[in-house]
Backbone:
């Protein structure tokens, strides 16, 4: 499933992506500590990310570098995603 | 095996002139790995039961040390805390890297989960920047296969340039090979030439500049290259260390350089993942479109906002059912068959001794032993249930499902579990907060835990409520539980907004793949946790029991004129604001500090002189108006944590501060709520 096309929505935050969507981490908005914690779980700029679960409220589940990662909604809002190539 | 080369290892040699001289025939091997790689199972496999559990010096984090023999070589295995990386962001990470740098083990065994290889190699990338040879244990190949992931150990070994040993922990395969490989690299460190991740341009040049500037100031035993790298990464601990070590004018130069390259951290991390991608490219075959795996199917239910909640309540309901079915009868049996006969035996055999001595032993000491002993069945079952749920991978899902609710209190999903455990007993609940990595969130959860009504308190309510409220007893009980949870939520929301200004702890958590549990690991974990409780908390509980007993008997020998009674009389004015007609209720309440169920025993002595307990509840009821009775039960439910909980808070936080804070807070809160209930009822003219 490819819900977005590169031309209509270039950059969105992770929290707004529906389940099944794929994208590439474009930017991480937060302090050193936040970025470091994301990095150790594989969430770095350039990583391909697949949304496994997003009910529009509560936490999200994503797949990154072969591992399932749970993210609070606040955290997901601070991760900017560009469309998968 | 990696092909040993004969050239000298010199990349980190500058500052490691003093290699620790190990005892002949003894090798120190550290076991490292990220969480969820099956590290405890492998540690148990490597060491059998030859292990010692303690704490890391000055920390409340568990340290396991074990031994293994390989021919004539003895190997001491040190289990490092499970960490995702080696930054200074958590106490566990600091312990792991400090151990490697300061103690310089002869080799490190890094364990990775084959199903999450890209992820797990991040720690390997960091470890390779330290001057200790490494062996890779490739675990959970079976889980990887079930998920359609194929890993070629030999290809990975060739790429990394370090020995890679496949393991099937559940079948004990690969243990000997792993120890042999570790021994080989430990004995031939000069032949260890791994493929290390490198820092890319433009930051490689900056790194060289930093290294040059700090060259003369890096204190032993820190490797200079590593310190330079950590400075560039913005590591807080190393930055503070070097600022202190260097003359200000040189440090300012370093700082200016680091400031101009603040983005270096992202580049270094990105470089590590690029290195990982290169390492696994040929070794791992991952299906482009993953099959619908067991984990996917289970997660459709387990992490669903509604079904997940239902499943969660079912699992916890089952846990409690088990506890009641198994622990309560065992507890009763221990009490009747062990504790009472022991106390009676002491009384008869010491009949000639002074009464204070028999009292001290039979009531004080045996009373304390009894408390510890009767805690055990509940603890064992809770620990077992928890270890099982954790080992199969479910616990992370429970945290995920509850995250949205915990957010209201400024906590996140991981706090739910310990709090829920509190319904059984607050002691394992406080121990259960270990799953929370962020210290602030963990402390807040610990402070809130005693507000969860445990089985002992519910037993007191179950005994008194029918006499106090007749047909409305069930309603009153639910009301009391609701009050406790409401106070918990309110305190949580207040601290969140007033003290922490609404700042949310970040909820970022790995959800491991589900897999078959390892019973041995669960068994050993239950054994260690139970033993730790008996050893540490047990001693404090015993001591307190003797003190409480002494307070209830000194100075004259009977409870009615004891210090406890006097303390009750001293606090009686507070009781009078809640409609309590005399000091006896206060004394009974105070005695619940030893153990919550003590309230009943103390009421028995004070109201019936220790005689028949049959109409005890009735007798107490006649002395109280319904409003005063409700206030009494509410205070009992919210009152200060019991000795065991106080002791475990001390053990888990490492200081008495949080135990004292918890006691003070609940002292004020419990009486506050009691007074509010009674005065409110007076105002409305209800039940007075």
Residues:
């Amino acid at each position: 499933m490819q819900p977005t096309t590169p031309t209509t929505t270039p950059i969105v935050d992770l929290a707004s992506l529906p389940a099944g969507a794929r994208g590439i981490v474009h930017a991480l908005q937060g302090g050193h500590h936040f970025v470091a914690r994301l990095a150790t779980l594989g969430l770095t700029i350039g990583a391909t990310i697949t949304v496994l679960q997003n009910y529009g409220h509560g936490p999200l589940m994503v797949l990154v570098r072969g591992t399932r990662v749970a993210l609070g909604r606040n955290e997901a809002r601070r991760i900017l995603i560009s469309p998968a190539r | 095996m990696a092909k040993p080369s004969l050239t000298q290892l010199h990349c980190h040699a500058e500052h490691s002139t003093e290699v620790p001289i190990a005892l002949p025939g003894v090798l120190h091997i550290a076991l490292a790995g990220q969480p969820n790689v099956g590290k405890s199972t492998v540690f148990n496999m490597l060491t059998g039961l030859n292990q010692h559990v303690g704490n890391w010096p000055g920390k409340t984090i568990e340290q396991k040390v074990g031994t293994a023999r390989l021919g004539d070589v003895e190997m001491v295995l040190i289990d490092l805390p499970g960490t995702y990386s080696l930054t200074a962001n958590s106490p566990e990470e600091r312990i792991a890297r400090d151990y490697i740098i300061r103690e310089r083990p002869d080799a490190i065994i890094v364990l990775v989960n084959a199903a999450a290889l890209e992820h797990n190699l991040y720690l390997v990338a960091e470890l390779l920047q330290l001057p200790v040879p490494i062996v890779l244990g490739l675990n959970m190949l079976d889980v990887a296969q079930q998920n359609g992931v194929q890993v070629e150990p030999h290809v990975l070994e060739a790429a990394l340039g370090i020995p890679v040993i496949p393991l099937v922990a559940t079948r004990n395969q690969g243990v000997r090979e792993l120890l042999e490989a570790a021994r080989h690299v430990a004995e031939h460190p000069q032949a260890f030439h791994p493929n290390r991740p490198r820092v890319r341009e433009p930051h490689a040049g900056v790194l060289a500049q930093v290294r040059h500037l700090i060259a003369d100031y890096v204190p032993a035993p820190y490797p200079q290259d590593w310190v330079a790298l950590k400075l560039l990464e913005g590591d807080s601990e190393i930055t503070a260390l070097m600022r202190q070590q260097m003359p200000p004018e040189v440090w300012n130069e370093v700082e200016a350089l680091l400031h101009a390259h603040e983005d270096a951290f992202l580049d270094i991390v990105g470089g590590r993942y690029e290195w990982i991608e290169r390492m696994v490219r040929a070794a791992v075959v991952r299906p482009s479109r993953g099959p619908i795996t067991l984990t996917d199917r289970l997660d459709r239910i387990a992490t669903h906002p509604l079904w997940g909640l239902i499943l969660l309540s079912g699992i916890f309901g089952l846990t409690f059912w088990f506890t009641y079915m198994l622990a309560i009868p065992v507890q009763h049996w221990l009490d009747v068959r062990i504790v009472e006969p022991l106390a009676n035996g002491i009384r008869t055999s010491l009949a000639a001794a002074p009464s204070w001595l028999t009292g001290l032993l039979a009531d004080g000491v045996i009373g304390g032993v009894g408390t510890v002993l009767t805690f055990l069945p509940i603890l064992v079952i809770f620990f077992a249930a928890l270890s099982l749920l954790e080992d199969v991978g479910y616990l992370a899902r429970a945290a995920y499902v509850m995250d949205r609710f915990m957010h209201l209190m400024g906590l996140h999903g991981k706090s739910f579990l310990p709090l829920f455990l509190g319904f059984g007993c607050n002691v394992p609940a406080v121990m259960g907060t270990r799953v929370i990595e962020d210290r602030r969130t963990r402390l807040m959860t610990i402070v809130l835990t005693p507000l969860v009504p445990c089985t002992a308190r519910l037993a007191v309510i179950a005994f008194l409520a029918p006499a106090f409220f007749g047909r409305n007893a069930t309603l009153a009980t639910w009301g009391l539980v609701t009050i406790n949870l409401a106070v918990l939520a309110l305190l949580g929301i207040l601290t969140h907004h007033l003290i922490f200004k609404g700042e949310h702890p970040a909820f970022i958590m790995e959800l491991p793949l589900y897999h078959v549990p390892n019973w041995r690991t669960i068994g050993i974990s239950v054994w260690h946790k139970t033993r730790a409780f008996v050893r540490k908390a047990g001693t404090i509980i015993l001591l307190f029991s003797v003190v409480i007993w002494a307070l209830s008997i000194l100075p004259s020998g009977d409870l009615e004129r004891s210090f406890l009674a006097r303390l009750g009389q001293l606090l009686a004015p507070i009781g009078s604001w809640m409609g309590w007609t005399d000091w006896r209720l206060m004394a009974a309440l105070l005695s619940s500090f030893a153990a919550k169920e003590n309230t009943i025993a103390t009421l028995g002595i004070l109201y019936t002189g220790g005689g028949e307990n049959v109409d005890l509840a009735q007798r107490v009821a006649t002395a109280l108006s319904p409003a005063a009775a409700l206030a009494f039960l509410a205070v009992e439910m919210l009152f200060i944590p019991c000795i065991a909980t106080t002791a475990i808070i001390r053990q888990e936080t490492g200081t008495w501060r949080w135990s004292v804070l918890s006691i003070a807070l609940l002292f004020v809160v419990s009486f506050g709520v009691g007074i509010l209930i009674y005065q409110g009822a007076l105002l409305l003219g209800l039940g007075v």
